[in-house]
Write a structure and sequence with these properties.
alpha/beta, 13 helices, HTH_LacI, transcription regulation, transcription, Lambda_DNA-bd_dom_sf, Peripla_BP_I
Length: 333
């Protein structure tokens, strides 16, 4: 059971009113007393309840959703799936954008816990984080979205990204491509690493040396403007790359813009394969081949798992849902 303000008062040897002052009017409390109360808060793991009035009226009707990058249409669609289920069941969704920053993610987790949301859905910057682990230990139901790690004791909904990399690699090698650039965000992101692993496996299966056949272009973020500049640099030097597989469609769209702006024909000079199959993929200057993920279904399933755990915390078994991706072939390959 989560520690209460009374528990803090007892641990610190002060009144409940003094604890309240430390939380709300710290300037009115002597330094030594304030430090004593703060130490008790830290020892007990107390989290202030900013939604006490709501909770006195009944169970919270809000869910927290933290995504990596709201500029990425993939997360728009996932959020819509979450919101559809939440709305059907009378919940509101508090949407937070970590922008791939661990410090922002930690702050949002703190705020959501203070607001006593019913549960949290999160695409974490890193699967293992101290604050995320603490949130689960204190009893807030949590579901990982677009992440899978069997070592983590919670539900997850993800896509088999190794299989997605295999689909892309198989398609490109069957088209005769023997030198493939892999445009990716940081390989510390599990999805990026898994997609590269799948690509390497199919390249090896085509009797090519992955270390020679694949040129990995690791970028600081999964954004189109960054891949545009990287692709321009690739095209400016002598290269025998004839195809590119991008870790998401935004990178592919940046690459496509660079190719068109430098007079390269797609797919004759360079074939381009994306990942996610966002809405803009089909409307690109050259319609983009991509690996489709069931984004709405990911969001819906994640919300359903979270609410099932909220309603049955003692009996609900943690489930790891893994969807299979789908190859969508268009003009760019």
């Amino acid at each position: 059971m989560a520690p209460s303000i009374k528990d803090v008062a007892v641990r610190a040897g002060v009144s409940i009113g003094t604890v309240s002052n430390v939380l709300n009017r710290p300037d009115k409390v002597a330094d030594a007393t304030r430090d004593q109360v703060l130490a008790a808060i830290a020892e007990l793991g107390f989290v202030r309840n900013s939604s006490a009035a709501q909770l006195r009226a009944g169970t919270s009707r809000s869910l927290g959703l933290i995504v990596l990058d709201m500029a990425n249409p993939f997360f728009h669609d996932v959020a819509k799936g979450v919101e559809d289920v939440a709305t059907e069941l009378g919940y509101a969704v508090v949407l937070c954008n970590s922008d791939e920053q661990a410090t922002r993610e930690d702050r949002y987790l703190q705020v959501l816990e203070e607001q006593r949301v019913r549960g949290v859905l999160i695409t974490p910057v890193e699967v293992s984080s101290e604050r995320l682990d603490a949130l689960r230990r204190r009893g807030t139901p949590t579901v990982l979205v677009d992440r899978h790690d069997p070592r983590v004791n919670c539900c997850s909904v993800a896509v088999d990204d190794v299989a997605g990399g295999e689909l892309a690699g198989s398609h490109l090698t069957k088209k005769g491509h023997e030198r493939i650039a892999f445009f990716t965000g940081p390989l510390t992101i599990r999805q990026c690493a898994d997609r590269l692993e799948g690509l390497r496996e199919t390249v090896a299966a085509a009797d090519l040396d992955p270390d020679k056949a694949i040129e990995v272009i690791e970028l600081p973020a999964l954004k189109a403007r960054i891949s545009y500049e990287a692709a321009r640099s690739l095209f400016e030097r002598a290269t025998d790359v004839t195809a590119a597989f991008c870790a998401n469609d935004l990178l592919a769209l940046g690459l496509l813009r660079a190719a068109v702006s430098t007079g390269r024909r797609v797919p004759d000079d360079i074939a381009i394969m994306g990942y996610d199959d966002i809405e803009f993929a089909v409307d690109a200057a050259v319609p983009l081949s991509s690996i489709r993920q069931p984004t709405l279904q990911i969001g819906r399933n994640a919300a359903q798992l979270l609410l099932e755990e909220c309603d049955h915390p003692d009996t609900h078994a943690h489930q790891q849902v893994m969807f299979k991706p789908e190859l969508v072939v268009r003009e760019s390959t």
